[in-house]
Amino acid sequence: MKKMNVLFIAVDDLRPQLGCYGQDFVQSPNIDQLAAEGVLFERAYCQQAVCAPSRASVLSGCRPDTTTIYDLQTPLRSVMPDVLSLPQHFKQHGYETRSIGKIYHHRSDDLQGWSAEPHVSTGDWKGRGYLTDEAMEVIERTDAQLATEGSTRRGLGPAFEAAEVPDNAYHDGKDADHAIKTLNELRDQPFFLAVGFHKPHLPFNAPKHHWDVYDREALPLALNTSAPENVTEYSLTEFGELRGYFGMPKEGPIPEDLARTLVHGYCACVSYMDAQVGRVLDEVERLGLKENTVVILWGDHGWKLGEHGSWCKHTNFDIDTHAPMIVRSPERGKPDAKASGLTEFVDMYPSLCDLCDLPLPDHLEGQSFVPLMEDPDRTWKQAAFSQYPRTGVMGYTIKTEDFRYTEW
């Protein structure tokens, strides 16, 4: 019996701001088509709303209190040296496992999980992915200033850029190029191909033609710009991630005109990323692999675009813990289905095992959502759990059918 391949698409900082999630102003035709052919999970939740802990949970199958990864500095293998990771499990069952782009937060993490060294694309960009002369000048100035201040941060230019370049001048385009090359290489053997796209993570840098598909003035801004009543001191952040970029106010709210540009940039990056996803999916079909390849696309957590008067992720609010997840399986699930049951990212590992007829490792802390794919309206989990740390305090949040409760 021929093994089912896996195309595992991770997207950095992607909230459910996609056409298929009812956000009609966003141009995401390729992901929308994937959803039309698969199952869209309406209420999928990450286990912690920041890159490294969320990805560690997905790839280990364990919650943050088990991985003990709560920050960006801790590689999975430094705290769980013997855990059987998701790619490693597939590798042990005869799959060629490859990593392209951002899968783990640390590229060198879990080298034993991959059949070849993880691929990182190179290009002409500087700093955090800039191509314009204006951005280069800003980086030179800010790097010098940061050095005098004793900071180790580097490469911070503007928060957005719209260069007149082709898609593969930027990082994600080159990663899509390499994914297409790798699909051709692996077409005759079972594979687990992980492709991690960087956008729409800051800075919002995308080719200008993806900015041009939007009418800036028509883009909606956040409706709820106030913090909840009686919010705790731990609940919100000062969104230092965004404030670190050139031209961002160091305190106070983001002015409306700048907020509109940031929303425009986020949408442009979503459309840019979507185009790269489309190129990879088209190659899967061209190679005749569609009928034996499971495709899963997920954003590692949500993101605030001014909601609650804040930006970025790093909280336990629904806007940060709720993220997109779409699965297309040739043999399981109903096409163009929307599953409303609560799911968690820790469920991905057992679900992919289920879809590919692999045994479930004993350490997994999630449950397969394949029954929900086959009957999207069935009763499912009663709750989804997430958490976020502050100095000396851990905040836990539980999402149920009708409510969210958070405790610090």
Task: Please give a quick description of this structure.
The protein has helices at 29-37, 51-60, 64-67, 76-79, 86-92, 133-148, 171-186, 208-211, 240-243, 256-286, 318-321, 348-355, 370-374; strands at 5-11, 39-45, 96-101, 160-161, 191-197, 204-205, 293-299, 304-305, 311-312, 322-328, 337-344, 384-390, 393-399, 404-407. By secondary structure, it is α/β, with parallel strands linked by helices.
List the topology elements.
Blueprint lengths: L4 E7 L17 H9 L1 E7 L5 H10 L3 H4 L8 H4 L6 H7 L3 E6 L31 H16 L11 E2 L9 H16 L4 E7 L6 E2 L2 H4 L28 H4 L12 H31 L6 E7 L4 E2 L5 E2 L5 H4 E7 L8 E8 L3 H8 L14 H5 L9 E7 L2 E7 L4 E4 L1
Parallel strand pairs: 1-5, 1-7, 2-11, 3-5, 4-6
Antiparallel strand pairs: 2-10, 7-10, 8-9, 12-13, 13-14
Helix pairs in contact: 7-10
Q: Which characteristics define this entry?
A:
globular, alpha/beta, 3-stranded antiparallel sheet, 7-stranded mixed sheet, 30% helix, Alkaline Phosphatase, subunit A
* Distance, first to last CA: 50 Å
Q: Indicate the mean pLDDT.
A: 97
Assign an overall shape. Answer: globular
* CATH hierarchy: architecture: 3-Layer(aba) Sandwich
Poorly predicted regions: none
CATH superfamily: Alkaline Phosphatase, subunit A
Please name the CATH topology.
Alkaline Phosphatase, subunit A
Supply the number of structural domains: 1
Order of strands in the sheet with most strands: 3-5-1-7-10-2-11
One letter per element, helices H and strands E, the order comes to: EHEHHHHEHEHEEHHHEEEHEEHHEEE
**Total beta strand runs:** 14
